[in-house]
Write a structure and sequence with these properties.
Order of helices and strands: EEEEHHEH
Structural class: alpha+beta
Shape: elongated
Largest sheet: 5 strands, mixed
Number of domains: 1
Distance between the termini: 24 Å
Helix content: 10-25%
Oligomer: single chain
Radius of gyration: 14 Å
């Protein structure tokens, strides 16, 4: 696999998850730190489980902090980090209210469809 395209020593992903009881959907937002500096703060989007890691991975690819890995499973990012000496940490926080999904000002990024080329 390729080496990082930028000097990446550590990747920390903080996910916030919220379950919409009315409609039965789960949403998440992601905050990504590279080398201890926040580079991404996403708005909330649909996805359950570890989908926040997948969202973060797509942004990391778009901003050339890691290569595009085959497959969508977030475990591939973890494996890539281990193989390349990059510290990888994740943490998920379940919040009770939709307003707590993004306690930050959302950074403006390209749409996911533009990143993925769909």
């Amino acid at each position: 696999m390729k080496k990082p395209t930028r000097k990446t020593r550590s990747i920390t992903i903080i996910g916030r998850k919220w379950f919409d009881n009315v409609n039965g959907n789960t949403y998440h937002s992601s905050q990504v730190l590279v080398n201890g500096v926040t580079i991404i703060r996403s708005d909330y989007t649909y996805g359950y489980g570890s989908a926040y890691e997948d969202t973060a991975h797509h942004y990391l690819i778009a901003y050339k902090y890691c290569p595009k890995l085959i497959g969508k499973h977030p475990q591939r990012l973890r494996t890539w980090c281990q193989e390349n000496g990059v510290t990888y940490e994740t943490m998920a926080i379940c919040v009770k209210c939709k307003k707590d999904m993004c306690p930050w000002e959302v950074m403006k990024f390209p749409l996911m469809k533009d990143i993925l080329g769909n």
